[in-house]
Amino acid sequence: MCCGESEIGISDDNSGIMEITDDVPLGTDIKTIYDVDDIIFEVDNKSLTNRPDLWGHYGIAREFAALAGRELKPLDVDELSVYDDLPSVDMKIEDKLCKRYSTIKVENISRSISPVNIRIRLYYCGMRAINFLADLTNYLMLEMGQPMHAFDSRKVEKIRIKRFDTPFTFKTLDGVERNIDENTLMICNDNTPVAIAGIMGGLDSEIVEDTTTLTLESANFDAASVRKSTVRLSHRTDASMRYEKSLDPEMTVPAIGRFLYLLKKYDSGAKVVSRLTDEYAEKFPPVTLSFDQSFVDRYTGIKIDSETIIKTLTGLGFKAVYENGKYTVDVPSWRITKDVTMNADIIEEITRIYGYDNFEVNTTRSPLYPVRMTAVKTNEEKMKDLLVKRFALHEVHSYVWAYNDELKALGIEIEPNIKLANATNPNIETLRNSMIPTQLCQIKSNVSYAPEFGIFEIGRVINGVDENGLCIEHKKLAVTLFSKTSDIKTLYFRLRDIIAALASDIKHAEPEFVRAEPSHSYEHPVNLNKIILDGRDIGIMGIVHPVVNKNIDKKANIVFAEIDVDMFAESKDNGIVYDEPSKYPSIDYDLSLDLPKDIFYSDLRKCWENKGFDILKGTGVIDTYDTDTIHRMTVRFEFSSNERTLSSAEVQEIINKIISNLNDINVVVPNMIQ
Amino acid sequence: MDEKILKMKEEIESKLSNVSDLLELDKLRVGYLGKKGSITSLLKGMKDLAAEQKKAFGADVNKLKEFSAEMIEKKAEELKKLQVEHEIKSMPVFDISAPSKYECGSYHPITLVQRQCETIFKSMGFTVEDYSEVVTDYECFESLNIPKHHPARDMQDTYYLENGQLLKSQTSAAQNAILRKYGPDLIKNGTPIRAIFPGRCFRNEATDACHENTFFQMEGVMVDKDISISNLIYFMKTMLSEVFRKDINVRLRPGFFPFVEPGFELDISCLICGGEGCPSCKHSGWLELCPCGMIHPNVLREGGIDPDEYTGFAFGLGLTRLAMMKYEIKDIRDLNSGSLRSLSQFTDDE
After folding, report:
1. pLDDT at A673
2. Which of B200, B228, B348 sits opposite A299 (nearest CB)?
3. What residue ranges in chain B does DSSP mark as E strands?
4. Residue contact A387–B134, C-beta within 8 A
């Protein structure tokens, strides 16, 4: 049977028919000649980011060996000391961002296409075969996790690793012209850049068809520098991904040994013409950890015996001994670059191999103490309950920034406030200083929901910055009511009752409302009120400005309130003060009052409150009558005493005083009803 | 018996039989038995009678009086009974199958899920903390073992503000403050730190059905002398079983987060199939739920707590994700939409 490589799924080459060597008899299963029989283990590995050693198959094999309790086979490598008498490669590290640079030179390379098995493996690992030397560097990178680069020796004779003071352009082997700045580490042939360190080689020095001599790079670069260069160049490669993880610099030389072993295996004429040339500029200091059994016990909460611990750590390549209840653990070089540097790190090594599924699950033994919730937290929950259960409002969530487009559409001005520095969406650059505009946008999107509804949210606003330049953040409760069926007065009074209910239910207190001057484009200038609780201004309530209102809905009435949740929580809770009902009859006395313009109930109260009228136990408005010219209010006064039956004379005396006080503020009593 | 008495008796009997309501009956009673009633006036005529007749006449009038009173009382009972019967009969049958006009408010689904989690943790001695939405670089990164230029900062696309502060990208930003708030009590009195802190978090990313730039997390920490991985698994399993109201299996996989060591990804047995494997869990039987781990010694140290003496665990539960899982909300954007068609459905779920 004749077929192409792409047809049996070992490469994407469909240019011709595969040639199988003559010594294979007809009818032989292709799986016995080529490694095409693939077994896939799916390894879930979320910690890859932090494990440079797991970016090569050998590292994964080490994990498997430890998990299975089997021995990890060493890799076949070429012995490099035999070349010690050969001349060195001219190489020098001139920048501290290069931690180690190892190189060797090989001549007389005749093979240009990789053996089928190598090509198959590369293909299975998601890489394309290019040429023999490039394939071998990639193979090594996949196998050991060490990125390598093969230079044509004709182009690279004097290796220098450095940065340049002035930016320039450089064409990488993918043919792309890239801008190199003064922070990017380069590999150079003397002063000519030939590769971007740790990222990609240059087009001019790459292996080509007639290349027969090779200078091999096996190096180690500063992880952060590679990462930053990658971001600057917007070019992430298989090599840079590995360097970013802080690779083990100890790996560069064994990788060369492994490369030469494979090179000579498949191209027996290849001849090493230099000694290993290796500059190890910066070593990671060795890490030795010591801890006792109780440390492990305390962290795990279960018993893992010393034999298991030693076996696990040894399997993972740690040198671990247990003596006199103490563990001494030398961390292998491939783990000290990043992830195992202290005792807590060892716990993970022990427990993940032990298996979290095998953990006995235990509760804690801790002393008991009362748990107290903050006033803000408890108040907030009560607010939500009241608003939902009693007033049938709907809780919504929103964003902490102003919605520019939506606010503009409503005719609400976006007020200056601190902005996001890196918002990708211009619609959301300014942080909000009030939740009311947010809620009006949400009302707008809900106008068809129902003829009458209300929403609320407890959220955050930012009111500029303080003297240290830090944001002043406030937690607010915003309530907005919408109605096509209630008149504006009814709706506004409903909102007033909601605010009063919050204060009364949660704080056993009565809020005061003080007329406020408008300061925002969405506020109706009339009937705007500050909400005063416990003597402090904790919020605002009002009617939506007619312009904004019409932009939302021409036929609806909309009212809003916003209160500071922290200030509300800080205000005094008066608690329940029990007033024993009198055993003596009480006397009700109703006064019908004609109020001049600009006189409000809050003014009337001053005529009888805090005047020492001990027997006046309560007051209430039982009726109001309004026309264009008359504003009449009927107030009921309740008199009683716990000691005696009151006489009508003493009640009348107080009523007379009240009437006199009322007359002082031009309130007249047209007739008296008892 | 005197003829007048007999006649009156007959007259009363005849009138009574015609009375049809209580008001009429009362008039009748007053007409015969009242102070100026007919029976009373019979007695007034007694003075013309002879002495021996007087006695018999008087007795007969009294008999008539008693008899009449009795008859009227009987009639009254009868009429009252009739009236009740009439009231019952006249009550129409209501159509209570007609839709109720009761209006009910709604909680945001995040509030519901958050409350459920809080209730469980409160019952296990955890306090509930609150934290600002704008935080400093120190709170969000440095104090959490994520120094400047650490690659972990790239993992999260953070919203920075003009003044260098940022919108917290994770509730862990409150960890340092919580450790500092409760650390002294732990060290002085041995009161374990047990706290959860739910809050809004922000990530600078494009939104779609699965991604939001504003979402809720709930962080939890526990620090004491001997807090272990075993305890962490216990608390997560217990809490999640309570939240989902069924026995939940959890599994830990190693995960990397700079502020924990060791760090884990916690999976729960699939809520749909219970672990058998189904399309919801991509046939694995598990759902990835939350990162957790043992608090990194550097984080404890930064919070003023000696890591050689104390250990602790921390977890970050995605409240938004939890709410979506629990209520099968498909589009994450519904949560911040303010759309009452969606949100008004969440009346209560204690």
Report:
1. 45
2. B228
3. 127-128, 134-135, 166-167, 193-202, 214-224, 250-254, 260-269, 286-295, 311-318
4. no
Whether residue B344 lies within 8 A of chain A, CB to CB, comes out as yes
With an 8 Å Cβ cutoff, are A371 and B125 in contact? yes
According to CATH, what is the number of the domain A288-355? 3.30.56.10
Per the model's pLDDT, the better-predicted residue between A372 and A438 turns out to be A438
Q: Which residue of B has its CA nearest to A393?
A: B105
Q: Which of A2-6, A58-62, A651-655 has the lowest mean pLDDT?
A: A2-6
Q: Answer whether A43's CB lies under 8 Å from A60's CB.
A: yes
Reported as a single tens digit per residue, the pLDDT across A632-671 is 999 999 999 999 999 999 999 999 999 999 999 989 887 6
d(CA A170, CA A179): 6
Residues of chain A with CATH 3.50.40.10: 80-280
Compute the distance between CA of residue A514 and CA of residue A75 in angstroms, rounded to an integer: 84
pLDDT at A45 over 70: no
CB pairs under 8 A between A and B: 217
Mutate to test the interface with A, among B165, B235, B250, B300 (most CBs of A within 10 A): B165
User: What fold, for A375-570?
Assistant: BirA Bifunctional Protein; domain 2 (3.30.930)
Residues of A with Cβ-Cβ distance to B311 under 8 angstroms: 298-299
CB contact under 8 A, B229 and A418: no
Q: Are A547 and A354 in contact, with CB atoms under 8 Å apart?
A: no
Query: At a CB cut-off of 8 Å and minimum separation 6, what does B312 contact?
Result: B193, B221, B222, B223, B224, B227, B294, B295, B300
pLDDT for the residue numbered B147? 81
Which chain A residues are within 8 Å of B206, Cβ to Cβ? 424
Cis-peptide into B262, omega within 30 deg: yes
List, for residues B38-86, the tens digit of each pLDDT value: 888 887 777 777 778 888 888 888 888 898 899 999 999 999 999 999 9
Contact A299 B343 (CB under 8 A): no
Helix (H) or strand (E) holding A465: strand A452-465
Single out the residue of A519, A592, A605 nearest to residue A562, CA to CA: A519
Start-end of CATH 3.30.930.10 domains in chain A: 375-570
Domain limits, CATH 3.30.70.380, in chain A: 587-673
d(Cα A69, Cα A11) in Å, to the nearest integer?
35
Which residue, A477, A425, A429, A482, is CA-closest to A451?
A: A482
CA gap A448, A444 in Å, rounded:
9
Cβ separation A397–B228 shorter than 8 A? no
Q: Dump pLDDT digits (tens) for A579-630.
A: 888 899 999 999 999 998 888 898 999 999 998 999 999 999 999 888 888 8
Nearest CB to B234: which of A362, A387, A441?
A: A362
Please tell us whether the domain made up of A80-280 is placed in CATH 3.50.40.10.
yes
For the four alpha carbons of A606, A609, A610 and A614, in that order, the dihedral sign comes to: positive
Q: Considering only residues 112 to 131 of chain B, which have any Cβ-Cβ distance to chain A shorter than 8 Å?
A: 115, 122, 125-130
The whole-angstrom separation of Cα B69 and Cα A54 is 110
Q: Is B191 part of the contact surface with chain A (CB cutoff 8 Å)?
A: yes
Write the class of the CATH domain A587-673: alpha beta
**pTM as predicted:** 0.83
B206 touches chain A (CB under 8 A): yes
What average pLDDT score do residues A393-422 get? Answer: 94
Average of per-residue pLDDT across A102-126: 92
Tell me the β-bridge partners of B196.
Answer: B128, B220
Q: Where in chain A is the domain with CATH 3.30.56.10?
A: 288-355
Which of A348, A384, A391 is facing B262, going by the closest CB pair? Answer: A348
- pLDDT of A515 strictly over 50: yes
Q: What is the pLDDT of residues A167-201, one digit of tens each?
A: 999 999 999 999 999 999 999 999 999 999 999 99
